[in-house]
Amino acid sequence: MPAYWVARSKINDPVEYKKYTDQVPGIIAKFGGKVLARGGRFEIMEGPDKFQRFVVIEFPTFEQGVACFRSPEYDAAAKFRRQNGVGEVETIMVDAGDATK
To answer: Phi, psi at residue 7, to the nearest 5°?
Structure first.
């Protein structure tokens, strides 16, 4: 059953943040992930407007998505956005569940 990595971010230093985003596609692919949406047009329907970039990545399973996020490769890439306030991110992994309910 597919699972989705959903992230909201605020980029405070685009040059440094790019060091992170340049590495991530290959890491995601290694874990079977497929980017469905990244940085496109959006409209906040409800909630705070703190974030201006949204990402949705599909993984074949919940476990593969979590393994990607917790991998040493992803952790090394994420250090670029975590240091010195380069970016602020909220990330969740959600299982598709039974979407018919």
So the answer is: -130, 145
Distance CA(88)–CA(83), nearest Å, equals 10
Task: Please name the helix (run of DSSP H) or strand (run of DSSP E) that holds residue 69, with its range, or none.
Answer: helix 62-70
Residues 88 and 10: beta-carbon distance below 8 Å: yes
User: Tokens 């306030």 label which residue?
Assistant: 85
Bridge partners, residue 87, by sequence: 11
Q: Model-level pTM?
A: 0.89
Whole-angstrom CA distances from 33 to 43, 44, 48, 88 are: 25, 25, 28, 22
pLDDT per residue rounded down to tens, the chain (101 residues): 999 999 999 999 999 999 999 999 999 999 999 999 998 999 999 988 899 999 999 999 999 999 999 999 999 999 999 998 999 999 999 998 876 56
**Of 17, 9, 20, nearest in space to 89 by CA:** 9
